[in-house]
Here is the input.
Amino acid sequence: MRIAAKDCGACLKRGMLFLRAMCYNGGRMCEGSIKMRYPAYPLITIDPYVSIWSSSDQLNDDNTRLWFGMEKPIHGVMHIDGEHLRFMGAADPRFGAPQRTLPQKSVDFEPLVTRYVFENSRVRLTLSFWSPAILEDVQLMSTPCSFIDYELKVLDGRGHDISIELYVDSPMCGHDVSNVAGETLDCEGYSLARFGKRHQQPLHERGDGIDIDWGTFYLAGRYARYNEHGVAYNYNFTRKNAGTEDVSEFAARTLMSVYKLPHGFDGEIKVYDVFAYDDGYSLIVLGDMLKGVWTERFDTIDAAIDYFYKHHDELWEKTMAWQEKLLNDARPFGEDYVSIITCAYRQVLAAHKAVRRPDGELVYMSKECHSNGCINTVDVSYPSLPLLLCYNPELVRGLMTCIFDFANMPCWQYDFAPHDMGQYPIANGQVYGLDGEKTKGDPFAWLNIYKSSENLFNFKYQMPVEECGNMILMAYTYMRAEGGERSRAYIDKYMPTLRKWAQYLIDKGIDLDSQLCTDDFAGHMSRNVNLAIKACEALYAMGEMTGEDRYHEIARANAKQLETLAANDAGMMLALGNPDSWSLKYNMVWDTVAGFNLFSADVRKTEIATYVKRANPYGVPLDSRKEFTKSDWMLWASALDDTDENTRFMSRLLTVFLDNTRDRVPFTDWFETDTAICREFRHRTVQGGLWMPVLKAKWAN
Here is the structure.
């Protein structure tokens, strides 16, 4: 354990010391200190197909992996005075025997940078992975280029023979590595190597835990004075084994970056590589094959790489300025909260793809990672709102447009909102709840759903109230965050659809029949209070968008009635008629964040007290049925408080979870609060919801 905190009698809970990590005594947080060990560290995070992570504390303990665990090996080796020292990746016979590692001294994880320091008595190597993932600049953010920076310093004052080498292996290209081909190119001021499949089939696969099987991968680098070997594509990797005259040859299709320093080098250098990939086409959206929005700024990937390579320092300054903005917005909520948003930022962006439709609309599509692989899932978009609303509300618009348009096609015959737009990377219409009987005999029905004129869906597996409420609240918050005539015109365009969905919520009332909600892993539920709260909040939002008091009046009346029917000692029940139940009322958050004030301050106060009382060592359970929770909903629920104290309380719980979980995966949003075990879900966009306290602060000013 890496946790230290002050002891206090209030920490004793259910017979256990509260991990000495957090005390919440008399409504006050007792401050402690945490040295974080994150579950996984982002290295190259571009999109759902190129999101490379380290799942070990030491970068040279294990191979790098895609977010869902598949190995995508990148190896780093330093040769110093005839000795091979590995600083990145697992042991590999290509690098000779015996194999030793360059000792890792530290890893520093920042929102946009992951930095490793390796050191022995002779040298210090600092390795930094970063990209200009600046949310305000969609074209730059979505450009599929990332930096690997090297800083080498000789420590002992003596001259050494040194080379720094990086190897990107052919599994990066997909499944069948025997079909990989590449080449080396000389560019103006640097070298460029690339590889990819000989036969390309863009967008020919869909699903969740799959890697890209198309596209071209690039590595660019040089050092003008000292570079001897540069960057190259290598088919037959040949290495003289250390300490012997033996030569080994490996059929390894590899991108290589080699910085060989002058004989007797005794100074320090700073060099960098650019890693990039071009998928050709990024998504299929309603029948159109679309390229990434970055192609609006750069005609080709070569042009993008050239820009990145020649503007490294400028891009670094922009990235650091953006990172400081993120951190400044987070710091008022404490260092624990800073740790949380640091852990979440890059994974949220890397689970999206930005493209532009032929009609000029920007489309920002999410992948429902480690769930079912759906694309543009409404109840996954909704939790991600706070981050986007804080820094680029146009992306909220980009999440909604295709859903609105699909809902008005003949194939969607319901008077409530759809659930998704397909399965990544094919966005041709909802696949959640497809009726197997109706699509029987047509294995490709999913490919052309939007063209169908009949209802292909099973009502049982829809989320009517959930998705109606989500879309209305997304529309309202987008209009509020962006403001101006442009957002007004957008909302007006889809107002007939929004009115239809609002009417569905009115008709259903507050005593709901058995339905799925966004927490569908918990199954169907009748009389769901949290879902009814969402309906109330959405109807009030309709009043704000339309200026019609009737929506306000219905929302207030329903909220008052619901508050009475659901009242118990825990604030409000999980389900009507179950007085012993309770739950995180994350859907009530717009009362405080948007100022709706549909529910009484006393109810919110009681809810907060319940969360403190029911907290386990690693979080507050989602509800009274199980001990698991959702991290995004914890931070939404924390914003019910009129102060920041509950946000600090929830943040401390989440940092303790991150520090202690056994599961070395990107930041999961679904885990056990008593054991810190990850249930499912990793690398999901919903962690954008962790910015709800920041949004609350911004909208309060």
